[in-house]
Amino acid sequence: MKLTVYSICALMLFCSCACEKSAEKKAVKKVAYEYVWSLANFDVNRAEKYASEETKKETLGTARTLLAQTDRKVIEQDLPAKVRITNVKLTSDTTATAVWHKKTPRKRNSREIELRKRNGKWQAYDLIKRRTSAPMPNGRGGKK
Asked: How does 65-89 read in b/e, with b if 16+ C-beta sit within 10 Å?
């Protein structure tokens, strides 16, 4: 009898942990999707709602500057963007990763994004990797 009670308790504990993990993954996927979709469609203000403070300062600040200098016709060539999120992984209680796939009329690309949980809320932690050969917003390459 005791073994049955312990087995039932263990099963209930396992199920509750699995449900909690599933809910966390869904929350991470939603934030990743909303953040990436917003940036892919050039809506920096909307992306801010899903970004960490560091991301707002560095990545979104840079995005605003570049968008202000980019011809609207160039931007419109990349619209609308379709986004898909895969491979959501909880790496700890407060960190996660996901892979985004973006498709626009001009190109397709994929990249991993990191998310962090702060004050009970998942946020995109997407800092710019400084590379000298990064493509420019006008579609031309960087350093030659």
From this structure: eeeeeeeeeeeeebeebebebeebe
Residues 91-102 have pLDDT tens digits of 999 999 999 999
For 3-20, b/e burial (b = at least 16 CB within 10 A) is eeeeeeeeeeeeeeeeee
How far is it, in rounded angstroms, from Cα 45 to Cα 5?
A: 53
Nearest to 86 by CA among 129, 33, 47: 33
Instruction: Tell the residue number behind the tokens 């016709």, with chain if given.
Output: 73
Report how far residue 105's alpha carbon sits from residue 18's, in angstroms, rounded to the nearest whole number. 39
Q: Tell me the β-bridge partners of 51.
A: 124
Positive or negative, the CA dihedral 56, 57, 59, 65 is: positive
Domain boundaries, the chain: 21-125
Strand partners, 97: 89, 114
Q: What is the pTM of this model?
A: 0.75
| Secondary structure element (H or E) that encloses residue 6, with its range | helix 2-40
- CATH (residue range 21-125): 3.10.450.50
